[in-house]
Amino acid sequence: MSETIFSRIVRGEIPCHKVYEDEHVLAFLDVNPIAPGHTLVIPKEPAVTLDQLSDGAAGGIGRALPRICRAVTKAVGATAYNVLQNNGADAHQLVEHVHFHVIPHLGGQGLGLGWKPSPLDAEQGAELGRKIARLL
Ligand code: 5GP
């Protein structure tokens, strides 16, 4: 659990352009958008990374996120968008409070991805799949 700028926004100590709030969730415009409508959706619970989120907060996020995506894209007239969620400094997380970026793709604006796929080895895939499943 951490004290971050987002905890202060949740408590109303720092202003934001709020677009949605319920018991578990707050959503507001990103202060440095990479596209019009770039919105942050956060749990009120101050978990640092997604794996640390309680089931209650996760359920709240799951319920709210699709509705917020619909409203954001409709508001800016986008038909495509990305939902980005970074965990850990190595994965580009700057604010240590779980947050989902809703980023409309509009013309040339939106999320650019450095995605370098390679084929999954069948044997390694089977072993890794079983290993992850055992941990769930
Ligand atoms: P991260 O890299 O951690 O996934 O992204 C953090 C995001 O939070 C950035 O896009 C940044 O612009 C946004 N952000 C940081 N501080 C504030 C703030 O005080 N208010 C708002 N609305 N957004 C913020």
Order of strands side by side in the largest beta sheet? 1-2-3-5-4
Distance between the termini: 23 Å
* Class by SSE composition: alpha+beta
In the CATH hierarchy, the architecture is 2-Layer Sandwich
The gist of it:
This protein is an alpha+beta fold. It has helices at residues 5-10, 55-76, 122-135; strands at residues 18-21, 25-29, 39-43, 80-84, 100-105. Strand 1 (18-21) and strand 2 (25-29) form a beta hairpin.
How would you describe the overall organization of this protein?
It contains three helices and five strands; from the N terminus they run H-E-E-E-H-E-E-H. The protein has 136 residues and is α+β, with helices and mostly antiparallel strands. It has a five-stranded antiparallel sheet with strand order 1-2-3-5-4, covered by helices on one side. Bound molecules: guanosine-5'-monophosphate.
Keywords:
single chain, 136 residues, alpha+beta, HIT family, subunit A, five-stranded antiparallel beta sheet, 3 helices, 5 strands, 31% helix, binds guanosine-5'-monophosphate
List the helices and strands and how they pair.
Layout lengths: L4 H6 L7 E4 L3 E5 L9 E5 L11 H22 L3 E5 L15 E6 L16 H14 L1
Antiparallel strand pairs: 1-2, 2-3, 3-5, 4-5
Bound molecules: guanosine-5'-monophosphate (5GP).
